[in-house]
Design a protein that fits this description.
By secondary structure, the protein is an alpha/beta fold. The protein contains eight helices and twelve strands. Helix 1 packs parallel to helix 2 and helix 3 packs across helix 4.
Amino acid sequence: MLVAVFADAHAHGDALDAVLAAADACGAAQIWSLGDTLGGGPDPRRTITATRERCTVTLAGNHDYGVTGSVDPSRLGPVAGRSNELARQQLSSDDMAWLRSRRPAARRDGVQAWHASPRNPVWEFVGPRNAGACLAAQKAPLGLVGHTHVPDAWQATPGGGARRVSVETGVALDISDGKWLLNPGAVGAPRPSQQRRWNGLDAQAAEGAPWLLLDLDASTATWHSAPFDPAPARHRARRLGLI
């Protein structure tokens, strides 16, 4: 079965639409979201509607909890706070009830998924210092996380360590051996850098929003990217006071 996995749409409707179209073109049977559907962008209603309609699995991330009130908005920064207030204004009571029913972790078809990490599914960032401990906490051979905004692949090594495996767009990674923890990257937010949010998105848009295609039968993972035009969302964000 082919499963398209994405994370961190962050209320960016154009980038999410590009990823969903690319997943359809690749023949994905299911689409899974690892959370942070909301927070930062100008399109909360649009991203929630698309996610509800298209995704078989949808996790909650820290920004989604900011919208429902389960997380103190001050922990998310001023831009996310304004975007989340917009979400509370735009979303229907049914949307809010659905959002409150989401959890930050799930297990489906033998795969474990968390928004952030196996040890702390809401807040912990997986990186070189803790990937081994996160893999040790993971029970299934394959785990998925988002939250860092970086496409990544970690494989467990003997003694509780982890090695980072290079991710190359369009090249299938064999994940049949050992235990793996994969990150699809962020759809609607830039990779960590010195650039401001919207400048970072502008720089990444031509390359495309990253997402992951899992072939659960062949035990492969292939990262893809879906190019999008960043200008319309930037215009909407400026008009709404998010920039």
